[in-house]
Amino acid sequence: MVTAHPGLPEFDYVKPASLAEASRFLAEHAGAARAFMGGTDIFVRLRDGAWQAQYLVDVKHLEGMQALSFDPAAGLTIGAAVNLNRINAAPSVREHYPVLAEAAGTVASYQLRTRATLAGNVCNASPAGDTLAACLVLAGQVSVHGLAGPRQVALKDFFRGPGKTALQPGDVVTALRFPLPPAGYAAKYLKLGRNTLGDLAIVGVAALGYREAAAAAGLRFRVGLASVAPTPLLLEPAALSAGPVDEAALTAAAEAVAAAAAPIDDVRGSAEYRRLMVRNLARQALTEVWRKIAA
Amino acid sequence: MSLHHITLTINGAVERATVPANLTLLQLLRETLALTGTKNGCAAGECGACTVLLALPGAERGEPVNSCMVLAVECDGAAVVTVEGLAHDHQLDPVQQALLEAGGVQCGFCTPGVLISARALLDRNPRPSEAEIREALVGNLCRCTGYLRIIAGIQAAAQLGAPAGPAA
Ligand SMILES: Cc1cc2nc3c(=O)[nH]c(=O)nc-3n(C[C@@H](O)[C@@H](O)[C@H](O)COP(=O)(O)OP(=O)(O)OC[C@H]3O[C@@H](n4cnc5c(N)ncnc54)[C@H](O)[C@@H]3O)c2cc1C
Ligand code: FES
Ligand code: FES
Hints:
The complex is a heterodimer of chains A (about 300) and B (about 170). Chain A is an alpha+beta fold and about 300 residues long. Chain A is built from ten helices and 14 strands. In chain A, the strands form four sheets. In chain A, strands 4-5-10-6-7 form a five-stranded antiparallel β-sheet. Chain A has a four-stranded antiparallel β-sheet with strand order 11-12-13-14. In chain A, strands 1-3-2 form a three-stranded parallel β-sheet, with helices on one face. In chain A, a hairpin with a 7-residue loop joins strand 12 (about 205-210) and strand 13 (about 220-225). The interface of A and B includes residues 43, 56, 58 and 112 of A. The site of flavin-adenine dinucleotide has 29 residues of chain A, from strand 2, helix 2, helix 7 and strand 10.
């Protein structure tokens, strides 16, 4: 039960001087210490008692955490502490990865997005995370600093279950990286919430499409899904790469996407409703993308 | 629990405090500094009654945050503007004046947060469309007005232009 008392349970606030120190501290206090960005998930969970933490380890000030940079060869790097409003407003994101700007802009409210980060949304690994479907279709990579130093994890291998990720004790996410998207691609994020704005997704669907000579259809599509399975899902609908893309193929692809979803009943919607909405939103997003890249 | 010495500016005045790690910015404002204009509605980031402008060290301008979702210790070196800091020289901020005139205040509980969100919107976008105003206020719940008069007030404030004094 959430009470409106503004207090938080007791913990120590720790501000390590380097990534190495952060990793060491988090590993030494595994289970008791938590890396901390905007706190928009952490504070809610601490207040309602779902999580306990003896230490909150603030890593927002560490090297590279606040940087957002785009390189025409290497792509986009978003430091883990960059907040969602900055991502939504960044010219390089709007120009080259508009679907990411769109998805970031659908999270909660403006004032919450001043604090909430993309890295936090990813690390929290809620199946309903609004940015996850877009990050998946954009082939995102997670930069992690662990006890053994830095490494990269592909986002498609990152999610292991609700709230569960590939992170190990001592791991700190330092950035999210997105390769240059395929030339002439188009992408779309569609979110269905209880309200038009400001609510968690009942269903979220991201679609991305591009031309590829090697594909039988000359086109390739990826679909990312949120809120409809224990983890966000990344799919490549076979119906759209095997033969010519037309209305019938789009319908078949949308049916296949809905069949791949494993939604649950909850306060936001029934499993059956979610599956139908996945189909409809996937159809709509894929059609929109197809029209853009086929034009 | 760890204790931290912090120095920050609130509505232009320098404040020093020793804060426990778990003290939120909202508690610092209301309970330590008796700046009770900023309200506690939900303590969960939902209602926006606790919205203040926060400029962390190095930031060009303050951005709205839910002060119930920020630790006081994180605000060391920061500049905070609350509803008490909007008026200057006995003159209301245009957004305060316009909200009053439009009838956008009923019980008033949401008003401090609404004013801060509206000021921040007009600072980054002086001529917002109605859709942009609605988008900027998604995180400010109002149980009384039905929002229409709040939106009308912000539209009127946009016509009035920039406030008289510096907001920090
Ligand atoms: C009122 C409200 C409305 C919301 N609405 C939405 C919505 O519409 N859509 C949506 O998707 N989400 C929504 N959220 C959740 C969203 O705010 C968070 O998922 C946010 O993106 C998390 O980022 P953060 O920086 O606040 O993370 P934090 O709360 O700081 O951390 C989240 C988790 O990630 C871990 N973590 C954070 N940073 C790192 C790191 N660098 N390395 C390793 N682990 C790390 C933390 O330990 C924690 O487990 C809402 C939250 C609230 C309170
Ligand atoms: S008190 Fe409701 S958002 Fe902070
Ligand atoms: S005026 Fe009463 S909540 Fe808005």
